[in-house]
Amino acid sequence: MNKAKKKTAQHLLCSSILEENVATAYRSFASKTENSLIKLLLLFISYDSLKHSKTLLKLSQNIAKTESTTEQCEIILGKAWKNAVTQAHREMLKKEKITDQELASLIDKMINLESFLGEEYLTILQLKTLELVAKDSEIDLTGTKKILEWIVEDEKRHEATIMMIKRIITEHKQPTSSRPAFAAHPSLNP
Q: Given CA atoms 102, 116, 45, 62 in this order, what sign does their dihedral have?
């Protein structure tokens, strides 16, 4: 098997594993919050991340059959990969239920997790790397390129969704008299 094909397939496989861990972390957060709107938004990110995981896995399998261990993924995608997976697991193991106030303290970690993962930048980097590898290895990436662009768009929505959660929590903590009239519907606030 061509080394470039194997490396490309492993890169996509490791990204798939990362997305699966992110999906599990967000699903865990959703199961622990009591606020139904926040739960829905967290599940939105979780389902997207699971979709990304499955998609990246299939893209990997279409290029070459390969396997990757945690150690290999850390080498392929760097320490950031291992740190992100470790942080996702750590957050999932925390207590059963969380209040909005406890979730507020997690929001910054969630923002850091999304930023730390740099998924949209990682995906762009993957796209550029894959284009170079494909050129040398005669891999057709026409569909793959478009799919990765869609994942980048999803990641931008994830960041916006986390910011929306932060805004909901912040507005929920404000005294009733100082809340805007549409506080229950943050998207209606100017």
A: negative
